[in-house]
Amino acid sequence: MSTIFDTHLFAACVRTRRGERSLREAAAEIGTVSPATLLRIEQEEVQPDLTTFLGLCDRLQLSHQTFVRDDASFVQLAVRSNRHFWPAASGFDDCVIVSLAYF
Fold it and tell me: What is the pLDDT along the chain (103 residues), one digit of tens a residue?
């Protein structure tokens, strides 16, 4: 059984959590990643190495389990009504809902 890393979801959550802060500001706050690497992660150009991934999850208060799944249990779920996503109905947090909106 293989493991799937959801690059799209991770990038969307990092973008969402960064908010209006510049890449430089966010990278300085995180402390374990450069602005250039943060940009490449947000643009889905690279997958972070394990240290960077776990550091970002910790600093951004995201569970690493949200982004890594066994392929047998990998299911993408979106609760949609008239192109609006409803967090309360889906059970996902806000960054996941924003990510699903990109599909």
Answer: 577 888 999 999 999 998 999 999 999 988 889 999 999 999 999 988 888 888 898 888 888 888 887 655 444 443 333 344 444 444 555 555 444 444 4
Say how far apart CA 48 and CA 52 lie, in whole Å: 6
Single pTM value for the model: 0.66
Helix (H) or strand (E) holding 87: helix 87-90
User: How many C-beta neighbours within 10 Å does residue 100 have?
Assistant: 19
**Structural domain count, the chain:** 1
What's 83's domain CATH number?
1.10.260.40
- Write out the residue range of the structural domain in which residue 37 sits: 3-101
The answer to whether 67 and 76 are in contact (CB under 8 A) is: no
Q: Which of 92, 99, 101 is nearest to 44 (CA)?
A: 99
Instruction: Name the residue among 24, 1, 8 with its Cα closest to residue 71.
Output: 1
